[in-house]
Amino acid sequence: MSALSEGWRIQTRVIGALMIRELNTRFGRDNIGFLWICAEPMLFAGLVGLVWSFIRGPEENGIGIVAFIGSGYIPLTFFRSAVGRSNKVVEANSGLMYHRQIKMLDFVFTRVFIEMIGAMMAYVFFAGALGLVGLFPIPANPGILIAGFLLYALFTLSVCLILAPLSELSEVIEKLLPVTTYIMIPFSGTFQLNSWLSPSVRAVELWSPPANAMEIMRLGLFGDKVHPYYDLSSTLAISAVLMMIGLIMSRRMRRDIVVA
Predict the structure, then answer these.
(1) What integer pLDDT is reported at residue 256 of this predicted model?
(2) C-beta separation of 234 from 212 below 8 A
(3) Which of 78, 95, 120, 196 is least buried, going by the fewest C-beta atoms within 10 A?
(4) Cα–Cα distance between 49 and 222 in angstroms, integer?
(5) What residues does 60 pair with on adjacent strands?
(6) Is residue 77 in some structural domain?
(7) What span, in angstroms and rounded, lies between the C-alpha atoms of 62 and 224?
């Protein structure tokens, strides 16, 4: 037990140090520094929500359109940023692997955690700013909202664990990533609720982990204003399978890494 706790302590220190290094490398100390990590999702969500309010009006099925779009777009930017940052993550940091405490998976965990924290900060600031002017509701159930976000983060991490080793094996992955993240949007639940879909389309959407997680987040945020449809068991099962595949791929690839 003491060895396990010591290993956990070392890994948390390693990931903490890598997060500080990553933030300094990406944002430096000028301007607002690392706060850009939450400013960017807020700006994207605000602009997209504003455009939708002009196109659709202030409400959609009794729900404020700016709050609805913003609450979906911030997690989407988290997914897209985390996936993009997983590309060639080992190649960019291979020199650090001279230190035996640093593992390949630490790089993936670090970048996903940074994007997750940025998205959470953006969500809180976005909700607080819009809440002051009556455009964002007080969450009906914060616990459900957080649970949905963590489920979304779990799926995102599982995808990144697969993409990180794949991107090291083939340059094609880097070219396909932007396209695949855009194709993923209709299956993300960002711009619709499953209750708004036809039964046949809804049946397909229930196999999408991000859509299911988004339904849970929207339930926690809007409460009785929404009628959620989600499949928790399939989301957990798919995320677990993807994570297991990613861990196996990372373990096998570690043998072939040449430390530069």
Answers:
(1) 59
(2) yes
(3) 95
(4) 17
(5) 63
(6) yes
(7) 11
Does 163 map to a domain?
A: yes
Residue with tokens 């409400």: 59
Helices (H) and strands (E) in the chain, counts: 10, 2
Would residue 259 count as lying in a domain?
A: no
Is residue 67 included in any domain, yes or no? yes
Count: domains in the chain: 1
Cα 74 to Cα 47, 57, 82, 209, 228, distances in angstroms? 12, 20, 12, 16, 19
**Residue 41, token pair as written in the block:** 């999702």
How do residues 207-229 score in pLDDT, each as one tens digit? 999 999 999 999 999 998 999 89
User: Which domain range does residue 171 map to?
Assistant: 2-254
Question: For the whole model, what pTM was predicted?
Answer: 0.90
Contacts of 181-185 spanning 24+ positions with Cβ under 8 A: 181/79, 181/80, 181/83, 181/84, 184/79, 184/210, 185/76
Least confident of 41-45, 98-102, 137-141: 98-102
Task: Using only the alpha carbons of the chain, give its radius of gyration.
Answer: 19
Nearest residue to 195 (alpha-carbon basis) of 186, 184, 206: 206
What pLDDT, in 10s, does the model give residues 3-61?
667 667 777 888 888 888 877 777 766 665 667 778 888 888 888 888 888 888 888 77
